[in-house]
Specification:
The structure is a single chain. The protein contains eight helices and no strands. It is an all-alpha fold and about 180 residues long. Helix 3 crosses helix 7 and helix 6 packs across helix 8.
Length: about 180
């Protein structure tokens, strides 16, 4: 994107044109209506303009992080959960047509299992799966290290798998917690 002194109206216009649709889709996957997601995208770009000196060259993960914080602020202020996003026929077709995917599992099953997970698990899975970010980029959005994001992703995938199978994976007992009778 260039050095901060070159971040003028032309820079912002190209940033907006390149990433606006991604931010709207990010909002659509988390909010119930398109107006709210468009409004979220507008707020994200207002922040990007105000803080244009901080926007990195690879701006999309940074913009996702701004959107995530804006949504968190909204949800905290309302103290209620976001509305459920309706499943469309287009989403069902996209899942069925994806290469290498298990077509016996529908998007409704995935969404139902995802809803049973904690907010952090849902967010890391969405960032990697829906937003198609790398683990490093997801870490940037979440404000943590790459290693922390990788561990969160591993654990979230395991929990999602457990939720999808409806049978918990047997937990391993820590070695330090064994008793003399176990030896």
């Amino acid at each position: 994107m260039g050095p901060p002194e070159k971040r003028d109206e032309g820079w912002f216009t190209s940033l907006y044109a390149a990433d606006y649709a991604h931010i709207v889709r990010y909002g659509l996957r988390r909010l119930a209506d398109s107006e709210a997601s468009a409004e979220l995208a507008q707020e994200v770009f207002v922040v990007a303009w105000r803080r244009r000196g901080e926007v990195p060259d690879r701006s999309l993960p940074w913009l996702y992080g701004v959107a995530r914080r804006l949504l968190a602020n909204q949800w905290r202020s309302r103290r209620t959960a976001p509305d459920v996003v309706p499943i469309t026929a287009a989403e069902l077709t996209r899942v069925a047509d994806s290469s290498g995917a298990d077509t016996s599992v529908g998007i409704a099953d995935v969404r139902a299992a995802l809803a049973t997970l904690g907010d952090l698990d849902q967010e890391i899975l969405r960032l990697i799966g829906w937003e198609e970010l790398t683990v490093s980029e997801a870490a940037q959005v979440l404000g943590c290290t790459r290693a922390t994001a990788a561990v969160r992703l591993h654990r979230a995938r395991r929990r999602l798998s457990e939720a999808m199978s409806d049978r918990p994976v047997p937990s391993r007992r820590p070695v330090l917690a064994t008793t003399r009778e176990d030896l």
